[in-house]
User: Fold Aconitate hydratase A from Mesonia sediminis.
Amino acid sequence: MAYDIDMIKKVYNQIAERVDKAREIVGKPLTLSEKILYAHLWDGEPTTAYKRATDYVNFAPDRIACQDATAQMALLQFMQAGKKKVEVPTTVHCDHLIQAKQGAAKDLKRANETSNEVFDFLESVSNKYGIGFWKPGAGIIHQVVLENYAFPGGMMIGTDSHTVNAGGLGMVAIGVGGADAVDVMAGMPWELKFPKLIGVKLTGELNGWTASKDVILKVAGILTVKGGTGAIIEYFGPGAKAMSCTGKGTICNMGAEVGATTSTFGYDDSMERFLRATNRDDVADAANEVREYLTGDDEVYANPEQYFDEVIEIDLSTLKPHLNGPFTPDLATPISEMSEKAQKNGWPIQVDWGLIGSCTNSSYEDLTRAASIAKQAVDKNIKAKSDFGINPGSEQIRYTAERDGLLQIFEDLDATIFTNACGPCIGQWDRSDRKGEEKNTIVHSFNRNFSKRADGNPNTHAFVGSPEMVAAIAISGRLDFDPTRDKLINEDGEEVMLEEPKGLELPPKGFDVEDPGYVAPRKDGSSVEVKVAPTSERLQLLTPFEPWDGKNIIGAKLLIKAHGKCTTDHISMAGPWLRFRGHLDNISNNCLIGAVNAFNMKTNFVKNQLTGEYGGVPDTQREYKAAGIPTVVVGDHNYGEGSSREHAAMEPRHLGVYVVLVKSFARIHETNLKKQGMLGITFANESDYDLIQEDDTFNFTDLESFAPGKPLTIEVVHADGSKDVIKANHTYNENQIEWYKEGSALNLIKKMNA
Assistant:
């Protein structure tokens, strides 16, 4: 039986009436995305046809999921909201704070010793406020959600950008910052600009070495890292129906890498099979009763150009295996072209590591397809030329894979089986063959490959592929290995070829597990005491941010002008910094240390206008704050792409940055800035970015009349006394301006609950 089945049935009981009403109001057939959005309006039954990419809309998500790194700050904020219990089903998953090093047992033991303070805090807060808790080792949040909580036609939010993985089970699942989650936990509406819609029509059927991962690798190459911003990507067509549910999840998961709000598929037989295989017959039966409302209308899929803002068509029968990278997930290369491209760009051909897992590709099907390649290597006496690491997606998958002999196959190739956790995917990797200045290559089945993400080394070239392609390349030890045509030499000196991968959609003997790792909260948690030691280096109770004084910002100094790609990894690094995710002051010591200073092309090296000397970004900013001087951060396009981590907004806010002025924002980061009471604005004229000089001072001359749709005027004063007056646009609506006035959205919630 499913968790929260009464809530799911409630959604299904009202979906027909709400969707029918929405279709009547909109006056045309509806996509699946529109059906789910209109069925989850905060005000209930639809009364208005919303304009895409324009109208802000209040929604009522069905559930929330938080991973341990972001849950700390989210729950620290929720503790300030004045509520006795969360208002919607919520879960916390401990998957980020487990470092991959020696193997599952030793790594998990070490994590429980080094992060026990954080795990105990999360479990006690969960117990107190009615939140389901998944212990360390239980699995990666998004795989656990897919196996236990996701349901067709539902809406959920999660404090991780890859919450979108649940689209593989027909949800609208969206990554958010912790402050957004706190709103919903506190029983308030969740606001989202009504998304644009991108339709991807899939024809044909996957075959040979091509996997579901190759679909999103291809789409990433088409849309780039910002092409999906502000949009939901909806997949449909015969090719979509032919895919497994977990394959759909893989595609949705990596939609975060093109900036999409989320991605989704219509309910079909593969989803029903997955629900029943994961002991959710009750959900499948309920979904079947409203099946037509859990997919797009027939007319939409027959004539998609009339209903989507953009349509992409991919023939799966001709789609080739891809590797994307290095340093960005949208640099797509068919494996057949990798040899030429790698040579041209000077990418290291030797592959040191092949890593399989992450929330993107750690399902039973993924492991079987990769294991089918590994088994061939064992049987054909081929020794793997690269090191191997495997992260199963959940304890249920690990237990079942061990029972069915899959893990033993990898171990026969000397692979290390890491904990059911994120591990190297989010920088939690103590790499055994640490590299220094030497350029090196790794391949993995993860979703992101930004510089330094996996191992902290800027010289590591990381490439993204399917689990089976990662296995083949790791066995060959060469980036330019094309298993569709290239041969290998085995230990007997014989030429052999790897045959096409074979996989199982679901385990023939069913899933099995002894202890899934779930801890239910107390029915009454009022007596639970949550303790945070004042001397803790890991946890710190929050102090509310100061409200806006209602005056223009005058005399603000430039902190940094960031050059090029500036992701949330650059603004607030993960890896070893994850240990401070619950301590705002300590983690603020990594604020913008990865951003490249446009004036000297160095990281963490900016000019202090008070002293004329150069220093680290956090140190310099702390001096400005101590002197009571506001500061401005200037950035390029798609500023804040990547993870949902709100620390990238909270850290500069905590340190005294007042304004972030960029060419364009990634969606989640822009919202996070707004939630934390920051002024996040964009150049009205992008070329004005070039006017900003190292010693500039900024005067915001009309902020006192801050209003929706009204651009702001900025007087930029240069060191020689000359000035440029520029305009900046913003997307703040009336409610968001109230967040700004109060100092943060949380301050407003506390005021309303007082």
